[in-house]
Request: fold
Amino acid sequence: MTNELTVRVARRVQEAEDICSFELVPHEGDALPAFSAGAHIDVHVAPGLIRQYSLSNDPSERHRYRIAVLREPTSRGGSAGMHDRVQADDVLCVSAPRNHFPLAAAPRSLLLAGGIGVTPILAMARALHAQGSPFEMHYCGRSAARMAFLDEIESSEFSRCVAIHADDVPAQKLDAKRVLAEPRADTHLYVCGPARFMDHVLETARGQGWPEAQLHREYFAGNPTALATDGSFEVRLARTGLICQVPAGRTVIEVLAAHGVEVPTSCEAGVCGTCLTRVLEGTPDHRDSFLTDTERAANDQFTPCCSRAISPVLLLDL
Reply:
């Protein structure tokens, strides 16, 4: 892990059903690297197991990072590891913050959070309030019992800017068409949460005429698809001349590693963008959740942890 930091778990709090927050403070020294709203850190949960968690606290704070982790029923070890093993006073290795989901310079912001997607959205709300920048936030969940930080939001100075939508209260359910009914040139939309929630919000926004450049999103989980029609393809490295065959059932990352070529990775699910690699020739088969539709259409970069190739050959800038 690059830019590795050692932190101590100062507090562990049960924030909602299946959601724990972890307050991380410097193991040595007084301050942590600064971060901006929307940033995340990589957490070394166990040997060989690294996961990304968004920072939910005020970006002006340097004495702590706060993350929240939803225990996933189909956990591959990350969320279960955080819930089962990590306790107060434990020492963890984390990365310095990185931000693939930053706030744009815009007069007005519309924030939509679904479930655990509230973590980066809450940091955005805090930052926008501190800047005096107008915003509207909608926080959606299956029930209040499964929604973290409700008390914190309701007692905040910006609570009047937040609408709570619990699915088990019919009068509270989100009406995306109503919320997104009037696209404004001065407003940018930010959405984070489960894939189905995000897809619904983004599809509704596009249907209501929101320009793609004003839509910002961050997925928490990837859904790389292994198709029965997957075949093999060739990867060529422009800098070294190495030629590798990538068979069905193996990723580009795995094949390159077998040939001694290490590409930085983290999530291995096409979510974080750590492994993003330039494509000089050929057409990728994009299976990530990181790139925008416009970036995918350019076909000049791809995520080798999960994406493949439509063309017989990909020439990579490696």
Remarks:
- Helices lie at 78-85, 118-131, 150-154, 176-179, 195-207, 252-258, 293-298.
